[in-house]
TrEMBL record:
This is TetR/AcrR family transcriptional regulator. Residues 29-48 bind DNA. The keyword DNA-binding applies. It holds the Pfam family TetR_N. Gene3D superfamilies: Tetracycline Repressor, domain 2. Keywords: DNA-binding. Residues 7-66 form the HTH tetR-type domain. The keyword DNA-binding applies. It comes from Nonomuraea typhae. InterPro entries: Homeodomain-like_sf, HTH-type_TetR-like_transc_reg, HTH_TetR, Tet_transcr_reg_TetR-rel_C_sf.
């Protein structure tokens, strides 16, 4: 029986950056990333062109994971759009109450990476557009009179829940946001 193959340098860099940029922020040093990944500096530049490319690759990876989590949570809630949309806020309460919760990775990227042309910004915008579309789809199915506007409102509640979860632990921001989401959905 052979031992499982050790991930290559690219995958180790992605894993290290996903962990460290979340727990220590987007400004984590290159040396810390290389040490955590156990790779040489050359690997960073060969695979990602530098730290900015690595951050962009991590964000692409996590956005795909997070979009899938939204869909999984909503699908597990059943077929009724109202129940599916409200399930998001129940899930957010679980997330922010978790011992490893460090806030919203995407908000942190947008606030920390101040260069307007940083590749992370387009990825975070695309992620928010994708979540907006997920929300808007169920709002349309619900028959909401202003589905795009309501999706904007729900997305604002999601962002606020994640920010409050990082800055005001113990308040159950998902439950509070869920109450507000119910008012948005009551327009149907």
């Amino acid at each position: 029986m052979s031992a499982p193959a050790k991930p290559g340098p690219r995958e180790r860099l992605l894993d290290a950056a996903q962990k460290l940029t979340y727990t220590h922020g987007m400004n984590v040093g290159v040396d810390a990333l290389l040490k955590e990944a156990g790779v040489a500096r050359r690997s960073l530049y060969e695979h990602f062109g530098g730290k900015d490319g690595l951050i962009a690759a991590v964000l692409l990876r996590t956005t795909a994971e997070d979009e899938a989590d939204y869909r999984r949570v909503m699908n597990a809630a059943g077929d009724h759009p109202r129940t599916r949309l409200l399930a998001i806020f129940d899930r957010l309460d679980e997330v922010v109450a978790g011992p490893d919760f460090c806030g919203c990775r995407y908000l942190a990227a947008d606030l920390t990476l101040v260069e307007p042309g940083h590749p992370a910004h387009e990825i975070t915008r695309a992620y928010r557009r994708a979540v907006h579309q997920i929300l808007e789809g169920d709002l349309i199915a619900l028959g909401h009179p202003r589905p795009a506007h309501a999706a904007d409102q729900l997305l604002l509640l999601i962002d606020g829940t994640l920010a409050a979860g990082a800055t005001r632990p113990g308040i159950a921001p998902g439950a509070l946001a869920r109450e507000l989401a119910e008012h948005i959905l009551a327009a149907v």
